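Hi U.,

Before I forget, here's the chain from the pilot set. I'm dumping it here mostly so it's searchable later in email.
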Amino acid sequence: MGASHSATAAHGHDHGHHGDSAHGSVKSYIIGFILSVILTAIPFALVMSGALPAETAVPVCFGLGIVQIVVHLVYFLHMNAASSRSWNMAAFIFTLLIVAIVVVGSWWVMLHLNANMMPGAMPME
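Structure:
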């Protein structure tokens, strides 16, 4: 603990310690956890009970999944509109763009896979 500990104490903070303003409170984590559990249980119950037909259940589950992503971003990753986190928001938006390109591109390829098949590769009936 010698010289490095006294230098850290004189400096006033440890390297691993950041201000409490960037971290959420226990209350916000509990709220986020409860919302996440509810947003997971609702689609599970809807699908397992058969309360909705498949044509309706898929968009409902997808919508609740989007809401759960927002809950995770707000309550656990602390993504908000504060100017101090502008680089985090820019990186997040760039990540969303890349994920959207990969998902839409993959979906497009899969939809047009049949048109790209060679005629000889199809079994003749």
